[in-house]
Amino acid sequence: AMAHAALGATGLYFDELNKLRVLEPAAAQQTGRLREECGAFLDKIVEFQNIVGSLIELVDQLAKAAESEKMKAIGARNLLKSMAKQREAQEQQLQALIAEKKMQLERYRVEYETLCKIEADQNEFIDQFIFQK
Length: 133
Description:
Blueprint: H1 2-9, E1 13-14, E2 20-21, H2 25-132
Antiparallel strand pairs: 1-2
Pfam family, one: IFT20
Organism: Urocolius indicus
Protein name: IFT20 protein
């Protein structure tokens, strides 16, 4: 025990296998534990990096898919807008056609009334002509 204390004073120690060491056995044990913990920590860091890498990849894929869907939606919206404009133009053409036909109908009505009046006048003339004979 005294030999151990004398060696300890000079910074030399015996370990559990009675090998001569420069490091105190407790410190050597803690260093070993720390080395193992560091190894486990490094393994966890690598695992974390892998998880983060695959997460970033997944987020990139989702972003691309979202962008693609956004483009499809914009295309569909533009198509709907152009269809609405086409319908509007078609409706305006039909309204113009209806207005034109109404005017034509009014002309025909006036013409019909005029012809009816002429027919009535002619019938009256014929009646008068027959009664005069």
